[in-house]
Amino acid sequence: MKIVRIFLKSIALVLILSITSCSSEDGEDGVNGIDGKDGVTGATGATGATGQDGNANVISVLFENQTINNGSNNVFDIPELTQEIYDTGFVVAYVTVTGNDYWETLPLSLGQQIILEIDKIEVGKATLKATFTQSNLKLRFILVAGVDANSIDFSNYKEIESLYNLKD
């Protein structure tokens, strides 16, 4: 019984303290602090090492909404295809259907049969040979003057795009 009285007195004390310590009025706002000063700008870092010289002689020529016809009469006038590129450089071609998010390298094959390829490259133009007729195509010719092409994977458009910083 003594334990019950102590317990009841403890509960009563807690209730009295809870009721008397609560207030419904807000206190006053505190004083706003002062903004601090900006820190000192750090020293400029060291200049990085000089990179290898790149080849600025890369040209991307885009033909949109093109129709390719069965046969070898698909001539594309490319005035950027100069004598220098013809003599010392190379040309790579890619094709995609308008709206696709990928490019395919020429020659393009279906199974074991080549269905689209470069037939001729001449100064100022390229001729494609196809075994089908298709419209709404995009073609991209990459023209590169005088470069060592031994280590480049031309079948991978993303590699060429990255290597030469090409933009769609």
Mean pLDDT: 80
Helix content: 10-25%
Question: What order do the strands of the largest sheet run in, or round the barrel if closed?
Answer: 1-8-3-4
The quaternary structure here is: single chain
**Based on DSSP secondary structure assignment, what is the total number of beta strands?**
8
SS strand fraction: 25-35%
N-to-C SSE series? HEEHEEEEEEH
Largest sheet: 4 strands, antiparallel
How far is the N terminus from the C terminus? 89 Å
Low-confidence stretches: none
- Total helical elements: 3
* Cα shape: elongated
Give me the secondary-structure category.
Answer: alpha+beta
Task: Kindly provide the radius of gyration, computed on alpha-carbon positions and rounded to a whole number of angstroms.
Answer: 37 Å
Write out key terms for the chains shown.
168 residues; alpha+beta
Present the secondary structure layout.
Layout (H helix, E strand, L loop, with lengths): L1 H20 L36 E11 L2 E7 L5 H6 L1 E8 L6 E2 L2 E3 L2 E10 L2 E6 L3 E11 L12 H7 L5
Antiparallel strand pairs: 1-8, 2-7, 3-4, 3-8, 5-6, 6-7
